[in-house]
Write a structure and sequence with these properties.
- The chain is mainly α and about 375 residues long.
- The chain has a single domain, classed as MFS general substrate transporter like domains (Growth Hormone, Chain: A).
- The chain is about 80% helix and about 0% strand.
- It is built from 14 helices and no strands.
- It is globular, with a radius of gyration of 19 Å.
Length: about 375
């Protein structure tokens, strides 16, 4: 395993201690400031929209040698600055806007970072992205656990956001020795399968309501401390699933493994609709651990370039924004059950399409 994979994993781990420690309590923080379910869903969707708009730009503008690493560094630094600002605002709408602007940094850094990882992947992108996603998600375990323990011991939500924001600046340290290794074009002529793969992935994201609404479901049923701890459990399962799923996809093909992840997402939404909030959140963690690693490995196999990752992340963000708006509206106007029912239907359809349309090509397509 190349050294730079571990270094980039360490960067993501530290940053996720910071970001996910904040995001674990963000639904509670927004409601504490006076926001409702529609604002929470809109904030989550807005975060993904801002990120997606920058992903396509970043993939093309910073996907060249000499530009990728500085863009990654600037992205992590900007995110830390916006998290610091989030601890200072008191208006719920302004807090939601600040959370969305924090994703500017993620939008800048993610395509060039994934392109650097793809350049390190060789013939086993599932392994490389599985390792990276595992380390990334370990930070998402430590952050929420720390936030939950601080809440349990009486710390205010504002002070927790501040502490986590300061931790984020440490993520720049292991980034310093990383070297750029970028691909100029598809390694095996797989670009023709990219639009089909992106279409199926986009349909899945239109239905995957995301962790914030699962967290809000736990908040309404068990309270904010339980939600933070449930988020940590979600992250543990995400971390545990990423590496085995990536390795399995190297052997069985991306489409088959993605179909499993998509189907588990549908099942988790059905559990949430049936008021089993904590098990649903946990199962979604397992499903998303599969999806997160294998989708990125699929893009590496089909192209591996920064523009390809920019297109992928932009599509994910736009579809997720649309999902956040629809699901938040269904939650507030109809019922939480309707929101999760919507999710179950679309993600089940995506699972079927992944199995039928994408698994045929074996390792040549996701």
């Amino acid at each position: 395993m190349p050294r730079d994979v571990w270094l980039l994993g360490a960067v993501s781990l530290i940053n996720d201690v910071s970001s996910e420690g904040i995001f674990a309590i963000l639904p509670y923080y927004l409601t504490l400031l006076g926001g409702g379910p529609a604002l929470v869903g809109g904030a989550w969707g807005g975060m993904e929209l801002v990120k997606s708009l920058l992903n396509a730009f970043s993939g093309r503008a910073f996907g060249r040698p000499g530009r990728a690493k500085p863009a990654v560094a600037a992205g992590y630094a900007l995110s830390s600055c916006m998290k610091l600002l989030l601890s200072l605002v008191r208006d719920p709408k302004l807090a939601a806007l600040t959370a969305s602007l924090e994703r500017v940094g993620k939008g800048l850094r993610t395509p060039p970072r994934d392109a650097i990882l793809a350049g390190l992947a060789g013939t086993e992108p599932g392994l490389v992205f599985g390792v990276h996603r595992t380390l990334d998600t370990l930070g998402a375990v430590v952050g929420p656990l720390t936030a939950g323990l601080l809440l349990l011991h009486g710390a205010s939500a504002t002070s927790i956001v501040l502490i986590m924001a300061l931790i984020g600046f440490l993520s720049l340290v292991p980034l310093a020795p990383v070297e750029e290794r970028l691909r100029e074009r598809s390694p095996g002529g797989g670009e023709g399968g990219l639009p089909r793969a992106l279409a199926v992935m986009g349909l899945y994201r239109l239905g995957a309501v995301g962790w914030m609404l699962y967290s809000l479901k736990v908040v309404s049923a068990r309270g904010p401390v339980a939600a933070a701890l449930a988020y940590a459990g979600f992250s543990v399962l995400h971390a545990l699933a990423s590496l085995p799923a990536g390795r399995l996809s190297d052997r069985l093909g991306r489409g088959r493994v993605l179909a499993v992840g998509y189907a588990l997402t549908s099942l988790s939404a059905l559990l949430a609709a049936a008021e089993a909030a904590v098990p649903a959140f946990a199962l979604y963690g397992l499903a998303y651990g599969i999806v997160d690693a294998v989708e990125r490995a699929a893009i590496a196999e089909l192209s591996g370039t920064a523009p390809a990752y920019g297109a992928y992340h932009a599509l994910v963000g736009l579809a997720t924004f649309a999902c956040g708006v629809v699901a938040g509206w269904l939650w507030e106007v109809v019922s939480p059950r309707a929101a999760f029912g919507y999710s179950a239907c679309l993600t089940a359809l995506a699972a079927g399409l992944a199995l039928v349309l994408l698994a045929r090509a074996g390792r040549a397509a996701p």
